[in-house]
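Sanity check record (used in CI):
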Amino acid sequence: MKYNAKNILSVIIFGVLFAGSADKPAYNALKGFEPLIGEWVGESESIGIFEGLPDEGAKKTINLSTYRWLLDKTSVQREWKTLAADGKTVINIGTTIYTLDP
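Expected output for THAP4-like heme-binding beta-barrel domain-containing protein:
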């Protein structure tokens, strides 16, 4: 099931990046992100070495993502944080900004 969610998210992101219009090109190219705007929480199991943890086998993690519009809906920012199952230990964090590059 987690692979299906990743595939669906990938399709949405790539669909958004290849969309466009003449009147508001940046917003129209990114409007596919509209359903993702907000805060998202998920749980998953990951292999420790890929998350920067000591290689002790599979670990349960909590994944937090926030999508928000920037600059009058001309770009979308995604911030993510992966926490250990205890919800306190931060494993990794990051930010991605999606924008139209005409």
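Residues 2-99 form one domain. If this sentence no longer matches the regenerated tokens, the check is flagged for review.
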